[in-house]
Structure to design on (452 residues):
């Protein structure tokens, strides 16, 4: 059986990427990072998703990015609310975490090497949300190139692949794809600023995109909002 | 003043890379990773080096690579002792940490972005020790390429550079360079398996290379061995 490492945040995109990896026949090793994010309830959701979706194992790597800071997700900066679609499409937001996907894919690469996997899945997506530089195709291609040079497995002939199956899909397309694959989106949490009970704020960029996605997909939105 | 992030492990190479960065006129932000290494006394040495060598700040990012495992430095695997020079030159050792330099440079990149630095220094070295794939020039070039695509700063026009000033130097040349720049090597620890008092084992690959380096450089070895 082919093995893959799937980066699992507990959000809608990564749960869908997980479902795609399973549908493509991969045995899934799920990896989450406890990086000091303010929305820590994500990690509980990630664990529940990994379990119900049949991960071979789920590892949570502690990584305290608060030491680095620079983001609304890892510091005291305010999470932007009620931004316009235009702002979302053109301004890199305060929720950008410096070098996050480089670090997360690095962890996924190390994990993949220890379990003998060559395939990494990430729920990166550019169409709906172009603000994050490390979600762009050219970044993912550069990481794939790096992975083959960075590792013992690569030196020995392995060829790593970075799969970003959602890269060019709209949020609505992602949701339709996931529903078709049986993803239970009520278990996922996309909000950058949920309350202690894990209810979504409904107003951050991520909530706005998610809500719009369900509406456009014609799928009932199972999200519990504040 | 130009700012740089220097990856500082507490060992001989990274202390020398720090000295080179200073000599080149950079204000140095030192970054160490507490990655669950068995030789944790390294971190105390890193802190002391950062302080005495005049770092603007020193951050230690907690990152539990034991969750990933796969290395003698982060698991119960035995640290190889008394290996021949031939083995060292041709076999990737058990002390290889999967994707370590990808992850560490990713952290350095995130840190650099938050402090407005574009220059990353790493004490990677290939000549004396060719076993680690992520110390090779082609890896470092690939990371530099990745860095410019991965970041908000890169999108906005910054050009990141990965400096590996020791890359093609022998251990003896590194030591001579460092002595010329005033590095106090008695503060550094290279051993993969020191005792609780921080004394070097003298037999792991790293100890053997260090000892040979001081001998070849004609510099008294200040290392305290068990």
């Amino acid at each position: 059986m082919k093995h893959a490492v799937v980066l699992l945040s507990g959000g809608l995109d990564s749960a869908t990427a997980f479902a795609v990896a399973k549908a493509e026949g991969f045995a899934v090793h799920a990896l989450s990072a406890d990086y000091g994010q303010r929305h820590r309830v994500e990690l509980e959701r990630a664990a529940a998703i990994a379990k119900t979706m049949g991960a071979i194992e789920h590892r949570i790597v502690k990584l305290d990015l608060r030491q680095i800071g620079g983001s609304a997700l890892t510091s005291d900066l305010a999470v932007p609310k009620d931004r316009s679609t235009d702002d979302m499409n053109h301004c890199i937001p305060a929720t950008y975490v410096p070098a996050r996907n480089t670090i997360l894919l690095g962890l996924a690469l190390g994990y993949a090497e220890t379990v003998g996997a060559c395939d990494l899945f990430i729920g990166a997506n550019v169409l709906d949300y172009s603000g994050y530089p490390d979600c762009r195709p050219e970044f993912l291609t550069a990481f794939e190139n790096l992975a083959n040079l960075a590792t013992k497995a690569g030196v020995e002939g392995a060829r790593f692949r970075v799969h970003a199956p959602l890269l060019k899909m709209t949020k609505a397309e992602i949701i339709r794809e996931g529903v078709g694959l049986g993803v239970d989106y009520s278990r996922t949490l996309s909000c950058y600023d949920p309350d202690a009970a894990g209810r979504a704020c409904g107003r951050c960029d991520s909530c706005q995109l998610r809500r719009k996605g369900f509406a456009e997909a014609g799928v009932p939105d199972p999200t519990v909002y504040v």
Summary: Chain A is about 40% helix and 10% strand. The interface with chain B takes residues 59-65, 67-70, 92, 96-103, 106-107, 109-111, 113-114, 133-134, 136, 138-139, 142-143, 145-147, 149-152, 154-155 of chain A (CB under 8 Å). The two ends of chain A are 43 Å apart (CA to CA). The first strand of chain A starts at residue 2 and ends at 7.
